[in-house]
Amino acid sequence: MITFVGGGNMGSAIVAGLLKAGWQPADVTIVEHSTDRRAVLAEMFPGTQIVSEIGDVENAVIAVKPGAAAEVCAQLAAAGARRVLSIAAGVSVETLQARAGDSCAVVRSMPNTPALVGEGVSAVCGSARCSDADVQWAEAILGAVGTVVRVEERLMDAVTAVSGSGPAYLFLVAEALIDAGVKEGLSRDVADALVRQLLVGSGRLLQQTGEDPAELRRKVTSPNGVTAAAIATLESAGLRSTLEETVRSAVKRSREMGQ
Ligand SMILES: NC(=O)c1ccc[n+]([C@@H]2O[C@H](COP(=O)([O-])OP(=O)(O)OC[C@H]3O[C@@H](n4cnc5c(N)ncnc54)[C@H](OP(=O)(O)O)[C@@H]3O)[C@@H](O)[C@H]2O)c1
Predict the structure, then answer these.
(1) Residue 47 burial (10 A CB sphere; 0-12, 13-18, 19+)
(2) 122-175: per-residue pLDDT in tens?
(3) Given CA atoms 100, 70, 112, 126 in this order, what sign does their dihedral have?
């Protein structure tokens, strides 16, 4: 049995993943404030229980906006939760654990939006109160919508900056590449089709070969060829240092927002 509090984008993505992985709809409860959203959820997930208030709880996922996460955590513990997994960005596991009290173990995570298509990557960290089994429980839930890594809490800002916000960096690359193709005479439709599949295919190569990204890059870069000219431009324009700066500013903002 599992209770989700918040049936928005991320909450519903994880529910979809669990059902696809074989969980029974009757074992899933979604607590959702919004009446309109409850109607949508009832259509999306027939057989699950969609309710407006927290009832009896055993295990739970907090999928509300960060500002509401600590209060929801306290409510879940008061309702009997033994384990809680939070996906709220920037809310520390110790803050949540303090609100939950000793009877409930809290795990914090940072998923990302490719979870919506079952291709997410999440990092998890348990509070000092957690056993290994508690963290494994959280890993199994997030594993239904992608891959999961375990990190120390102090690295959660770095995770947020790399993979939490990361989809936006790649979407910006997609936008810019489509525009560049259009400037070279491609129709927008053709440029769009090329770039979408470019990212999907390159991602699959990374995933399925397990090869070092630098090695995969070398395989498409013949000396003095077309790709070599393009890569030299990216290197001299400072792509690496720009990305370093990008991640640094995201870490800084994530720390500020967590305070
Ligand atoms: N989207 C991302 O890329 C991403 C990545 C990693 C982590 N996260 C985290 O995931 C969490 C959820 O994000 P989201 O994008 O799924 O947000 P969302 O689409 O706004 O969903 C949150 C839902 O929870 C409902 N809600 C709020 N307070 C509630 C309460 N006390 N009880 C029951 N329902 C409540 C909201 O209803 P109302 O609108 O009526 O309040 C809304 O429908 C956030 O904490 C975010 O930091 C998001």
Answers:
(1) exposed
(2) 999 999 999 999 999 999 999 999 999 999 999 999 999 999 999 999 999 999
(3) negative
pTM attached to this predicted model: 0.92
What pLDDT does 253 receive? 94
Q: Which two tokens stand for residue 256?
A: 């500020």
Q: Which of 4, 64, 109 to mutate to test the pocket of ligand 1 (most atoms within 8 A of CB)?
A: 64
* Residue 238 alpha carbon to ligand 1 centre in Å: 36
Cβ partners under 8 Å of residue 70, min gap 6: 91, 95, 96, 99
Using the mean position of ligand 1's atoms as its centre, give its distance from the Cα of residue 69 in Å: 9
- Res. 257: pLDDT tops 90: no
pLDDT tens digits, 35-49 = 999 999 999 999 999
Q: Are the beta carbons of 146 and 111 closer than 8 angstroms?
A: yes
The order of strands in the sheet holding 28-31 is 49-51, 28-31, 2-5, 59-62, 83-86, 105-110, 120-126, 146-150
